[in-house]
Amino acid sequence: MAVAVHSFAEIRQSILETAKSLVDNTKALVNSAASSQEALAEAARKAVKTISREVDFAKLGAAALGSDDIEGQVRREGGREKGADRDMMISVPLFSCCC
């Protein structure tokens, strides 16, 4: 599978927009903490999705700035991120049921 190569300038805007979404998700999490368990869980799911998107854009940005071996770079980092995503997804239901 071929990986599209983009310049950092092309990726920068996506990184900034996703970071803004993450700030909005964090605000929703804080507001949902005083609301229902369902609202809190939904806000946490959205935050996890946004974090995953931000990681993808950050990897693209790093690849645009650095390594010629983009696929190898993504493979090396992918294992760590999948573990972090899994840990976060496990903590979401635990967090939402223990508040």
List key phrases describing it.
single chain; 99 residues; mainly alpha; 0% strand
Q: Can you describe what's shown?
A:
The chain is mostly helical and 99 residues long. The chain has one domain. 85% of the residues lie in helices and 0% in strands. It is built from three helices and no strands. The chain is elongated, with a radius of gyration of 16 Å.
Sheet with the most strands, sense and barrel status: none
Q: Which structural class do you get from the secondary structure elements?
A: mainly alpha
Number of domains: 1
Q: Label the overall shape.
A: elongated
Q: Helical region count?
A: 3
The gyration radius over C-alpha positions equals 16 Å
Instruction: Write the element-wise H/E pattern from the N-terminal end onward.
Output: HHH
Q: Write down how many β-strands occur, each being a DSSP E stretch of 2 or more residues.
A: 0
Beta percentage is under 5%
What is the percent of helical residues? over 70%
Spans of at least 5 consecutive residues whose pLDDT stays below 50 are: 93-99
Mean pLDDT: 74
Tell me the span between the first and last alpha carbons.
44 Å
